Amino acid sequence: MRKIALITGATSGIGKATTLLLAENNYNVIITGRRKELLDELKQEVEVKYKSDVLVLCFDVREKAQVDEAIDSLPERWRKIDALINNAGLAVGLNHIQDGDVDDWERMIDTNIKGLLYITRKVSPLMVERGAGHIVNIGSIAGTQVYENGNVYCASKHAVHALSQAMRIDMVKHNIKVTEVRPGLVETEFSIVRFKGDSEKAKNPYKGLKPLTGEDIANVILFALSLPAHVNINDMEVTPIAQASSSIYFRKE
Ligand code: NDP
Ligand code: 8X3
Fold first, then answer.
1. Tell me: the pLDDT tens digits for 115-147?
2. Residues lining ligand 1, judged by CB closer than 6 Å?
3. How far is the CA of 173 from the centre of ligand 1 (A)?
4. What pLDDT is attached to residue 54?
5. Whole-prediction pTM value?
6. CATH of the domain at 171
7. What pLDDT is attached to residue 227?
8. Which active-site residues does the annotation give?
9. Is residue 85 part of a domain?
10. Which atom of ligand 2 has the smallest separation from the CA of 142?
11. Closest-lying ligand to the alpha carbon of 186?
12. Angstrom distance (rounded) from CA 11 to CA 34
């Protein structure tokens, strides 16, 4: 029988790659994001390629009422969620703290921290009820290290790191696994969003090295989900070989 995974931020990057890989590996998938047309395209692709069932839920994770309504609307057969992949997130802007744009800060805090909390608050009780489940939080190498201009994004991912540890403590007596995956540089739409649509600037972080792909992180997530019932990966930092820390890279000319 197929398992069920709910993946937030499935329209692009890590979330899209994870959706495709889980569908290929015996999961029916609930896919979420704000861009409805991309969710519909992905549903079509998954159904044709992998014959998995797909449920599309289009909402903004920053809007608690939308999150509540989406999860409350789940048909009974979709409520047995085996894996919640808390992936939706973003960085916007790169500034010293004194020059930061407060609207950017609020977008990051509302999406990366509050959005993750809203979803988890609705889905974790369904897992607790069944005494089973696996929550995978996509943190970042920026969740344990900081770098110049990264201030609020790094803080938001430090919050995800703290919440992942706290969730593990709260979930332990309910037989629910909590895994945090903390990627370094992954080439997705992330950089385009960070540089507010400036596609030239967005290429800079990837110059002279081979970054990770969404598929690399999807493989790591699948690995964590596939381990025996008594084994949990708590925390995994994953970088390209050319990245040694959040600010040290080896770039070839
Ligand atoms: P992408 O920009 O490619 O994907 C981000 C996803 O998040 C999109 O599907 C987007 O969907 C969704 N999303 C963003 N804001 C919202 C919102 N308010 N409501 C609902 N969905 C939202 O980036 P990545 O795949 O790289 O990012 C995925 C996660 O990985 C993020 O949490 C990011 O912080 C983390 N990460 C990324 C790294 C990288 O180098 N790329 C490194 C470390 C961590 P839509 O726009 O349709 O709403
Ligand atoms: C994304 C990785 O180093 O750009 O979380 O912050 S980094």
1. 999 999 999 999 999 999 999 999 999 999 999
2. 9-15, 33-35, 60-62, 87-90, 111, 115, 138, 140, 183, 185-186, 188-190, 193, 214
3. 31
4. 98
5. 0.98
6. 3.40.50.720
7. 98
8. 153
9. yes
10. 6
11. 1
12. 8
